[in-house]
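Hello forum,

I keep getting stuck at the same step: I have a sequence, I want structure tokens, and every attempt I make locally crashes halfway through. Rather than fight my setup again tonight, could one of you with a working pipeline run this one for me? It's a single chain of 69 residues.
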Amino acid sequence: MNSAAEGYDIQSYLPLFFAPKMTDEAWRAKADYWTSGADVPRDLLRGTAEWCARNNVEYLVHLNHESRL
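Reply #2:
Ran it on my machine without issues. Output:
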């Protein structure tokens, strides 16, 4: 698993996410982990959204059970 945007391998930091007291470096790695994960749905759905726009099809997506909020 990479933090491609940040340019490093995040795997060595994963155990630190569960430490009783995290270092500043571990907090940065954890933030990078969650930020990079947020990009996945956007990147996966982009192709479908572009196709719908080209073909004049309305596109609506629900993620993360936001209807329960």
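Helices lie at 24-54. If your local run keeps crashing, start a new thread with the error log.
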